Automatic annotation (TrEMBL), chain A:
Residues 14-438 form the Amine oxidase domain. PANTHER family: PHYTOENE DEHYDROGENASE, PYRIDINE NUCLEOTIDE-DISULFIDE OXIDOREDUCTASE DOMAIN-CONTAINING PROTEIN 2. This is Pyridine nucleotide-disulfide oxidoreductase domain-containing protein 2. InterPro entries: Amino_oxidase (IPR002937), FAD/NAD-bd_sf (IPR036188). Pfam families: Amino_oxidase. Probable oxidoreductase that may play a role as regulator of mitochondrial function. It comes from the Bacteria. Transmembrane segments: none annotated. Gene3D superfamilies: FAD/NAD(P)-binding domain. Interacts with COX5B; this interaction may contribute to localize PYROXD2 to the inner face of the inner mitochondrial membrane.
From TrEMBL, chain B:
Residues 202-512 form the Amine oxidase domain. Probable oxidoreductase that may play a role as regulator of mitochondrial function. Interacts with COX5B; this interaction may contribute to localize PYROXD2 to the inner face of the inner mitochondrial membrane. SUPFAM superfamilies: FAD/NAD(P)-binding domain. This is Pyridine nucleotide-disulfide oxidoreductase domain-containing protein 2. Pfam families: Amino_oxidase (PF01593), NAD_binding_8 (PF13450).
Amino acid sequence: MSYDAAIIGAGHNGLVAACYLARAGLKVVVVEKNDWIGGAAVSRELYPGFTYSNCSYVCSLFRPEIMRDLELPKHGLQVLPYEGGAVFTRDGGYLATFRDHEANRRELMRHSPRDAEAYDRYSRDVMRHCRFIRPLLLRTPPDPATFRPRDIAELAWLGRKVGEMSEGQICDMIRFWTMSISDFLDEYFESPVIKAYLAVSAIIGTALGPMSPGSAYVLLHHYMGDVDGNVGAWGFARGGMGAITQALTASLRAAGGEVRTGAGVEKVLVANGRATGLRLEGGEEIAARRVLSNMDVKRTFLKHVDTAELPPAFVKRVETFKSRGSSGKLNIALDAAPHFPALPDGAPMLKGDLHFTDSVERMERAYDDWKAGHFSRDPFQDTMIPTMIDPTMAPPGKHFMSCFIQYAPPKIEGRDWTDADRDAFGQTVIDQIAEYSPGFKDRILHMEVRTPRELEAEVGLTDGNIFQGELTFDQLLFNRPVPGYAQYKTPIRDLWLCGSSAHPGGGVMGAPGRNAASEILRDLRAKTEMRQAYAVV
Amino acid sequence: MPSYDTIIIGGGTNGLACAARLAKAGKRALVLEAAERAGGGATGAALAPDLAPMPLAHLLTTLDPRVLDGMELERHGLSYAATGLTTTALSPTGDHLVLEGPAGAGLSGTIDDAGRAAWEALRRRLMSFAEALAPFRAVTPPRIARKAGNDNLKLARIGLGLRRLGQDEFREFLRMALINIADVLEDEIADDRLRGLVAFDAVLGAWLGPRSPNSLILYLNRLAGEAAGTRAALALPRGGMGAVADAMARSAEAAGVTLRTGARVGRVLIEEDRACGVILADGEEIRAGLVVSAIGPKATFLDLVGARHLDTGFVRRATNIRARGGAAKLHLALKGAPDFRGADPATRLVIAPDIASVEEAFNATKYGEVPERPVMEIVLPKAHEREAGGGHVLSAIVQFAPHAPRAGLDEARRRMLANTLEVLETYAPGIGGLITHSELLMPQDIEARYGMAGGNWHHAELSVEQMLFLRPFAEVAQYATPVAGLWLAGAGSHPGGGVSGAAGWNAAERILSGVAA
């Protein structure tokens, strides 16, 4: 049996690409090494009665265009916006955050009237940068090193977009892309806790600290999403993040596509410089006209393709592609809601993200530990209790808590993580929460601790990088993942990349999957038209 | 009383270069220098009466060739004690790595063939990028605004130069433009001494660590500089860096420039939104149709002009110019020649054993703390002199030092000196016993002595978001300011500081091009 397209990896991008191709009439199959679907957008029951969002934990970046095209709400996806959250300060106070701009502004006023003023200017400026970059997400980056009409036309389009702004706005944008979030926030704000709160989105998932140049761009990357048209807002997928991949699977099946789990790929079959199918771990071969890899670029080419088939310069760039993991995760089943004495009873803040890092300096020091090859002694955490909004994820009265932790290096002082390292890492996080929530430890029923090692082993993310490759300029846009191969094509004909290693990068966004599919369909149309042209001749 | 048509505020290298260029074009230029001697960072005080003065800058790395030739500096007394200076990457065990020729064209020391080949390949690539970027240093940065008076021909030529690298190298350039130096070194180079040295050179004078993105381009900027006519080379003037300052002052005066030292400008005189002279700190008023500020942009706008002459957005951008100095300057008088475990003293000695040492030294600075083990560049001027006699001195740029130390300036200076001497002792055992005088200038000391904001010798940090058309910020990137008749010409403008004169020369060219300010 032969397929038009075989897709490696049933993560969200693989499924998105599969859906678009299936809807275009191609016969597709998605193969997944795990016994479950979802990649890093997954919900699993690891403790009876509790649904964990094991990896990714909130939803915002997923492109609304894809949601519409693939009719995901019809297939069961529901996104529940959450209100805001709180940053706990070491002096026993807190900064609350709200989705509503005015409410947020009032709370900022409590900490610094000057910062509350600046917040309006800040929001306006950041949103302007967002508006520029959002349309680029669903476009294939142009290659500035060629003179192909398509690339020149795309560059010209970009030039026109830039030209719509004033000189001051263009310069502000270039500064914003290249500077550190710490420097950027210093230009607006004075309150350490406000700056700490706003710096969060600039470090999540990256191997950068808030004082690293380029971190402001990462903030933008996290601000590009929206929930129900509310730009920059975040929400929970009802039933955990796996609900997204479940809906995608349903949409794929409705379009006639297949998904096979427990089917790990051993090798991409290549003959005469073109991909012809897959060989699974058991030895079974699947013939396909084209292969899409939703694995990261390193895993794809260094583990599942014979490097003799690739140009040496390409192999070298893949080897040096940076995908250092920087984060870990604790998933906790709680007997009861945690109590935080700093917050008023029944505070709505518990329904959002909870942070315990009240200054940019503490975040940066946490990053210094990572650079030195340790997990942070005083880590940053983005902690959520989704069951506050979505009761389907835990038994009544009980809660599921997701703690996203930074920083955790891919290796500890150059050696692999051990179970003891992992446990010490988990303990550090628990201790930090317990400082602000006495009795917290007694409420823990079950806990899953994940370091970059576990992320790589289960999800397949090389070195545990959640974006399938760091988001620095040398690995963004036309440089992602390898200069000259940023348009989803690879040096092997009919082998395509559709994962987050490709433009525009990670997050549960779906854009790389959609873009890859549209490149394939474009390619297909071109070939078909050419054949027709020949037929006429 | 003589009358001038142009006043240049600040008699540092940029002020002098700008004045000389303007005078050659027929302007009657007056340079006002607050210190008792012109030359800015190329000048310094002596540690002891029988010792040579110790300038802030201790090596020539980026003297603009237009300034060297246009001011005929060699005719006015500049000569070299050493050109094509060698660098020694010091090892605490004496296993030094020696880099000869510009940017280490040749390596000697214990390094295998693969290591040599890797360095040659990386160096060749970076030098080709630097070569393509070098012409940028000598143009007025373009502005995006319409009718900006961009020099499109020159800019197109530079763009073409980059494109001529060929498709593969152009792609590499685009990939590496904003990369961090540490990743590049870890990918390409195996030798820790070499990694440490290049990491150190990339962030010398910057407020960045080698793991900070955008650090590679600072290394390219360094490679693009020239000394004594050779790209990426290092030179030591005979008589020290003060000789450059003196030659520039003599050349300027020979061109008709009037140089007044000990004349601190209090503010720029503005009438009907036009700069028409200056008022000195002692109240003296000097009028001229053109005022050029070669001091820092922040001080120029916020202190000399004043917020009331500028609009709010402009004041905010001027306030937001970042100028954090991260380098301290160490001067030691020594009873005898120090021995760096056999290293040739007539080379530039660098203590930066690996990337982590540079990064960790920067870590402390981020929080206003003093690093435990700073990294440094050492020059032993005495080793370059043929005549015997006189005492030994050691000059070192020590990184990183906090520009706003939390422990207070005196305490931080004390710790910085102690930590620096401790590192030195590891590399040159017994050096501590040779010291007769010592002086360590923290960034705040440098600011007080030289007037450089934050003690940063670029007046405004050299970083991608403050480079080219963003230097010091877009509206004033072309040397003209919103105040008619007032221009910028200092290190805070493109292409930045160092003993170079490029910014001053560029500003003079721009002024002479007839574009209105």
